[in-house]
Amino acid sequence: MPRKGLDREQVLDAAEQIANQEGLQALTIARLAAALNIKPPSLYNHIESLDQLIDGLTVRGMRMMIDLTRDAAAGKSCKDALCAVAHVHRNAARTRPGLYTATQVSVQKFGPEAQELAGVYLQVILSVLQGYHLEEEQALHAVRILRALLKGFIDLELGGGFGMPLKIDETFQVMLDTFDAGLRRTGG
User: Fold this and answer.
1) 8-45 and 50-187: same fold?
2) Residues contacting residue 71 through CB under 8 Å, at least 6 positions apart
3) Could you write out the three-class secondary structure of 95-120?
4) What is the pLDDT of residues 124-152, one digit of tens each?
5) Where do the structural domains in the chain lie, given as residue ranges?
6) For the chain, how far is it from start to end, CA to CA, in angstroms?
7) Superfamily, domain 8-45
8) Where does the pLDDT of residue 96 fall: very low under 50, low under 70, confident under 90, or very high at 90 and above?
């Protein structure tokens, strides 16, 4: 029987808190049940599986990134939009790392809502890159490259992987300047 007063949103809230504080990989049924002060089998009254729980976090994360990205890019184009979106990603990874990480996994195994939101998010990013006049396939490659650049940079930064005495913010800007220049050459 479900714990009185506990609903799916509260379960997701607790899961998000664990993921943000300890990392998405720390989220387990046992850890979540302990956080909610219930026995692990009781958790299955609210969720079907750990995968379903992560699916729910991915949906939340996708909604967050879609809203943040649209807001950041509004009224901007090309490099201004690209930089605004990149900074939004970096800030989201710093402030809500578990939820951000949930948006970085393939949604192929998740439910239709996560897959639909991933498609919406792709369109949002493609619209950010629209000012570069890329062909359709070039634009898709550009999305992949941008994702890889941001994930790699963010992983290194959050993991303490930048040890040289250079300002990390400057390196981030050089990365974006270089990507912007490449997009301009490609798009013409």
Assistant:
1) no
2) 88
3) HCHHHHHHCCCCCCCCCHHHHHHHHH
4) 999 999 999 999 999 999 999 999 999 99
5) 8-45, 50-187
6) 62
7) Homeodomain-like (1.10.10.60)
8) very high
Specify the range with the lowest mean pLDDT, choosing from 38-52, 120-134, 144-158: 38-52
Tokens found for residue 81: 């939009």
Lookup: tokens for 166? 């250079």
> Mean pLDDT throughout 42-70?
94
- What pTM did the predictor assign? 0.90
Q: Quote the CA–CA distance of 153 and 104 in Å, as a whole number.
A: 14
- How would you write 105-161 as a 3-class SS string? CCCCCCCHHHHHHHHHHHHHHHHHHHHHCCCHHHHHHHHHHHHHHHHHHHHHHHCCC
Q: By the 8 A CB rule, do 23 and 101 touch?
A: yes
CA neighbor of 62 nearest in space, from 92, 86, 91: 92
Q: Given pLDDT bands bounded at 50, 70 and 90, which one contains residue 95?
A: very high
The fold for domain 50-187 equals Tetracycline Repressor; domain 2 (1.10.357)
Q: In whole angstroms, give the CA distance from residue 178 to residue 49.
A: 43
Which residues have a Cβ under 8 Å from the Cβ of 80 and sit 6 or more positions away? none
Q: Which residues of 89-108 are buried (b: 16+ CB within 10 A; e: fewer)?
A: bbebbeebbbbbbbbbbebe
